[in-house]
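Office hours follow-up: a student asked to see two folded examples consecutively, so here they are.
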Amino acid sequence: MEQTYLKLNSGYEMPQLGIGVYLVAPEETKQNLLDAFQLGYRHVDTAHAYQNEREVGQAVQASGLAREEVFITSKLWPSDYADPEAIDKMLARLDMDYIDLVLLHQEIGDYKAGWKNLETAVAAGKVRSIGLSNFESERLEEILTMATIPPAALQVECHPYFPQQTLKERISPLRTIIESWYPLGHGDSQLMSEPVFSKLAEKYGKTPAQIILRWHIQSGHAVFPKTTNPEHLKENRDIFDFTLSDDDMADIAGLAKDFRYFNMTLEEREQRLMAFVPED
């Protein structure tokens, strides 16, 4: 099997493994994605704040793949939330007729107006599914209370040290999918060298990173590790020819310790992130 899919509560299917382009320079993005498409990747995670949406669109066009073969996720930055034309501007940057999934990037700014604009975009056929990113405070429930369309996905920090079990319980009635950023613990050598991963890597003939990515897949997360290294691109895809046992999954669950790599408080995000306005 070369790919697994998640059925979103919107009715659409999303490739479970994708590639992220956070911190990939615009001039590197197109080739990075063309390499990924060649290896079978069909899900790209970008954002207005990443400033490489145009190159994502260029890569899709240059790939020769039909638009419906590639699942595109992007995110509105808080400075976009109250702008009724923000989705049209995103479509123009991507040079696409629709976007598969659009998320509100941060739980700051006028997020209620942002959610209403996302729902309007769904009604207009410009966006197929909508969701949230980094909503973990009570502001998540504020959105859920006002939403007429439930979030299809919630993108948050998630890895074996911080598997987001409590958050999963909050959103489980909605069948909202967890999407993981920092899926490999931000490349933390301590996480990678945990004995359980060394043991399982030897057992299955894989690397510790492949074991962690497989854990994400079997945990039901969407995951899109970012890499511009062609060998790592290939390695990250090579996780569909084995299955972790229930005992293996239980051993990995024992690593959970409520540890985050990103620790900016909501107040700090409001003070620091609101000042950033990405270019169109």
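And the second, which I mentioned at the end of office hours:
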Amino acid sequence: MRNVPSDPDTTDAELWRLAVEGEPQRFGTLFDRHARAVYNHCFRRTGDWSAAEDLTSVVFLEAWRRRDDVRLHGDSALPWLLGVAGNVVRNRHRATRRHREAMARLPGQRPEPDHADDVAGRLDDERVMTVLLRLVGRLSRDDQDVLTLCAWDGLSYAEAATALGVPLGTVRSRLSRAKSRLRELTTLEPPGRLGHRQGAIPKPSGEEL
């Protein structure tokens, strides 16, 4: 048996390689590491926690389906996963339909429990995100993508460039333009519409994925 480092000490790139070479449980470790970040990304793009859960599943199903063809740039899989998430969100209805059809074909599926205690917080998140997404929606699609990855998901310029497949300088200029425009738009909103401060980004209550 090969002497493989324990999962906490193993890079995403190594986990991905091991999964491709016949250790599929390693992909579960990748899910554990990055599902929350992917979920939050999907929530911030849709303003709908239920849709974000479905879309997170779609992202990782797509990653598993394409595992043999993907070559990660660097040790982290997160930039690539968020790039997939951006595409999945844009093709939201088609992607979730395919996901639900695939899940329906699996045997022994049990209904997910309803976490009633989280509902109120999630609905409030959705209310705030609806207002914010309306403002963000007035930006170009390219500026929306960069703003989400850098300002909300915390990727570096280099990681965002990897996720989007664009040069580093393009990320910098798009982010600067997006932030400037969003500041202009938020000043026009009534006080309190975007949380405790203008332009606040709510932390999803349902990020326990």
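Two things to take away from it. Residues 36 and 209 are 5 Å apart (CA to CA). Confidence is low (pLDDT under 50) at residues 113-117, 196-209.
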